[in-house]
Amino acid sequence: MTDFTTDAPVLRARTAPPKREYYAYFGLIFLATLPLCILTWVLSAARRMEMPAKGPFAKAWTQARIITPQIFSA
After folding, report:
1. Rounded to an integer, what distance in angstroms lies between the CA atom of residue 28 and that of residue 37?
2. Exposure letters 30-43 (e unless 16+ CB within 10 A, then b)
3. Is residue 4 packed enough to be buried (19+ CB in 10 Å), middle (13-18) or exposed (0-12)?
4. How far is CA 29 from CA 4, 15, 68, 74, in A?
5. Is pLDDT of 14 > 90?
6. Do 41 and 60 meet the contact criterion of CB atoms below 8 Å apart?
7. Is the pTM of this model over 0.85?
8. Which end of the chain is more exposed for a tag (fewer CB within 10 A), N or C?
């Protein structure tokens, strides 16, 4: 039988990933990509004379979802 009274194992609390920082970067990247996505959406709609399947907000959201994890993995 093992005696843990003198050398008790040290349990470390698990820290959560920095969600506030992630959301701050996500918001900044989303706002930065939004004007370019709006511009490309308008040009694409004017060139084809039909509405693209994905709107400018969805494209900017997708770009932010791609770019933000790359920043945190570096």
Report:
1. 14
2. beebbeebeeebee
3. exposed
4. 50, 25, 7, 16
5. no
6. no
7. no
8. N
